[in-house]
């Protein structure tokens, strides 16, 4: 198989999980890859573990850098990547032994495919939830966009294999949370063909202390709103199916209310003004919304965001 894959693993203070992650990659029957480990200023034994693995495996490339966050680490990996395709694995997660082989064979036989989406499982000590894919090949740009922005896809880059060319001019925005959603419009712009695979499984480990499970500070909430706004604007510009951009509009509306309930109204005024500028969506949203979101929208229309925030509060 004359195909070369770059696997990028950002590493930061994950000594407890790192060996399981690396073992799950190195045990793959598919061998035509480089494994780029980006140590993002770890203060535990993570770098030592990476170096120990490097001694016994010539596929491993270590990038050691000061701490800059997940996006910074991914970008550092992309900078040195030599593959035709790229895959991102978070260092506290792991993959099934059949994650790459059949999928890379398919991509080799279908070189026009820009992106592949794989199944994943939310994995914890107490509960595991498998998210299966209905296998599809999408070759029409509009079909690709409607899928990538639908509820069928959670926009996580770790469950995908991409042509490296997608990242020639796009990079993850550094210092930003919800980075996978924030870069989605740029990725979508570059993807003309897409395959949804039913083979393999990415195990997304749910653990205490991870960024996704931390409480919502003002910074986290506003960056979540920034991501939703960016996606919503893109969906409207591209005139995707109305159900898709209404879904984002409803989420945007609800999260503004939640943010107002938790923070000062004035610091969120820009989002409220942006919401008002999208008033043409309101009627259609009311028609398509679930009962919960209908109540939220009606409250906003009748009483405004301040009162809605007091009513809905932190529920």
Could you state the CATH homologous superfamily of the largest domain?
Answer: Spore Coat Polysaccharide Biosynthesis Protein SpsA, Chain A
Total domains: 2
User: How many strands in all?
Assistant: 12
Strand content: 15-25%
pLDDT < 50 stretches: none
Provide the CATH architecture of the largest domain. Answer: Alpha-Beta Complex
GO molecular function: hexosyltransferase activity
EC number: 2.4.-.-
InterPro entries: Glyco_trans_2-like (IPR001173), Nucleotide-diphossugar_trans (IPR029044)
Protein name: Putative glycosyltransferase EpsJ
Summarize the structure.
The protein has helices spanning 18-26, 46-56, 70-80, 101-109, 141-148, 179-182, 184-190, 218-237, 242-262, 269-277, 282-288, 291-312; strands at residues 5-11, 33-40, 60-65, 85-88, 94-95, 115-117, 120-123, 128-131, 136-138, 160-163, 194-196, 202-205. The chain is an alpha/beta fold and 315 residues long. The chain has 2 domains: 5-212, Spore Coat Polysaccharide Biosynthesis Protein SpsA, Chain A (Alpha-Beta Complex), CATH 3.90.550; 215-312, no CATH class.
């Amino acid at each position: 198989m004359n195909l070369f894959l770059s696997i990028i693993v950002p590493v930061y203070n994950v000594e407890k999980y790192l060996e399981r992650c690396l073992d799950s990659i190195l045990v793959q029957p598919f061998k035509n890859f480089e494994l780029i480990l980006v140590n993002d200023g770890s203060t535990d034994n993570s770098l030592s573990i990476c170096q120990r693995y490097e001694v016994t495996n010539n596929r491993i490339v270590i990038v050691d850098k000061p701490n800059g966050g997940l996006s910074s680490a991914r970008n550092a990996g992309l900078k040195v990547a030599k593959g035709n395709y790229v895959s991102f694995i978070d260092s506290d997660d792991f993959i099934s032994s059949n994650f790459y082989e059949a999928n890379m064979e398919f991509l080799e036989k279908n070189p026009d495919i820009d992106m592949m989406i794989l199944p994943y499982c939310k994995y914890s000590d107490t509960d595991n939830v498998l998210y299966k894919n209905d296998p599809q090949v999408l070759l029409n740009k509009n079909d690709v966009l409607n899928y990538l922005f639908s509820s069928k896809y959670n926009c996580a880059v770790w469950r995908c294999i991409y042509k490296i060319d997608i990242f020639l001019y796009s990079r993850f925005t550094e210092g930003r949370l919800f980075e996978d959603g924030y870069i989605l419009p740029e990725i979508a712009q570059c993807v003309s063909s897409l395959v949804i695979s039913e083979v393999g499984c990415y195990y997304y480990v749910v653990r205490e202390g991870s960024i996704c499970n931390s409480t919502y500070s003002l910074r986290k909430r506003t960056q979540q709103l920034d991501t939703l706004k960016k996606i919503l604007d893109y969906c409207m510009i591209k005139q995707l199916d109305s159900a898709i951009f209404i879904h984002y509009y409803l989420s945007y509306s609800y999260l503004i209310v939640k943010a107002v309930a938790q923070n000062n109204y004035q610091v969120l005024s820009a989002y409220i003004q942006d919401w008002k500028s999208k008033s043409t969506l309101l009627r259609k949203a009311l028609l398509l919304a679930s009962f919960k979101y209908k109540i939220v929208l009606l409250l906003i229309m009748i009483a405004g965001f301040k009162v809605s925030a007091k009513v809905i509060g932190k529920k």
